[in-house]
Amino acid sequence: QQQVKQSPQSLIVQKGGISIINCAYENTAFDYFPWYQQFPGKGPALLIAIRPDVSEKKEGRFTISFNKSAKQFSLHIMDSQPGDSATYFCAAILRNTSYDKVIFGPGTSLSVIP
Amino acid sequence: DAGVIQSPRHEVTEMGQEVTLRCKPISGHNSLFWYRQTMMRGLELLIYFNNNVPIDDSGMPEDRFSAKMPNASFSTLKIQPSEPRDSAVYFCASSLAPHGRHEQYFGPGTRLTVT
Questions:
Q1: Rounded mean pLDDT for each run of 10 residues along chain B, 115 residues in total
Q2: What does the CA dihedral B10, B4, B94, B71 come to, rounded to 10 degrees?
Q3: DSSP code of residue B104
Q4: Residues of A with CB below 8 A from B42's CB?
Q5: Which one of A32, A36, A47, A102 makes the best mutation probe of the B interface by having the most chain B beta carbons within 10 Å?
Q6: Pairing of strands B65-71, B88-95
Q7: pLDDT mean over A39-45
Q8: What's the burial of B88, exposed, middle or buried (CB within 10 Å: 0-12/13-18/19+)?
Q9: Is B76 exposed, middle or buried (0-12, 13-18, 19+ CB in 10 A)?
Q10: Which of A35, A81, A95, B100 is the most buried if burial means most Cβ atoms within 10 Å?
């Protein structure tokens, strides 16, 4: 129940296209949904995040869509660029009395080709 | 700020040897996390410290793994004895506080290879 599912495992998109990564969860106790971006040889870095009472959040070319009833959320990258090539992790935060624990999805490797 | 600092960046060791990974969190952050990343299992939380005290070590795989945080600016993850299945990238991350959805800042990782 603590799992976050993510698809596809890998994605190839042409420059200028839209990249879409989908995630799903079961645990209704999750209360915050961040996305992390990881470049080769680097640690993950926070990209964008959304609260479950919001259906969409946009930051530049990156948009999160959130469907609370379906327990699904997705990342859209508009006008994808070669510099966006990285691994993307969706995540969900599980609150407990001690700390906010981040549960990561398995990741999507995105390649944007010129 | 230099961000989270980890050393070494790469470690190659033989099975049975002791391995010590080091981490310096961002100054002022009171939460520190150790993660392991593999292709098979993704990013797994190993242990979480708050104010230098281990709070959640349920992710530590077995007794061969141990972690310490002697002060607010230094933490170690030790594997003794190491095994080939411990080969992975180990990340340290820190955040400002345990609650409030604070961003976790990751270090560059230590790539461990056990032969």
A1: 92 98 96 95 94 95 95 97 97 90 92 98
A2: 90
A3: P
A4: 89, 104-107
A5: A102
A6: unpaired
A7: 95
A8: buried
A9: middle
A10: A35
